[in-house]
Specification:
mainly alpha; 75% helix
């Protein structure tokens, strides 16, 4: 069992366990690798940098 998956909320852990037991993934580590790969593909670095810059600019202005 992956140490990371052990710390997930029960509903998420159960979902991962179901996908592994149904044969969609060999094990929890394979699931996590695929999840991270898909996240990185769907969140381009440039977009993440823009969000960070926007957050910093908002923080410097304070609440309006």
């Amino acid at each position: 069992m992956s140490m990371i998956v052990q710390d997930f909320p029960p509903q998420i852990k159960q979902g991962i366990d179901n996908l592994v037991s149904e044969g969609w993934f060999k094990n929890e580590d394979e699931f996590l690798e695929e999840a991270v790969r898909r996240y990185l593909e769907s969140h381009p670095t440039e977009l993440m940098k823009k969000f960070i810059v926007d957050d910093v600019q908002w923080g410097l202005k304070g609440e309006e």
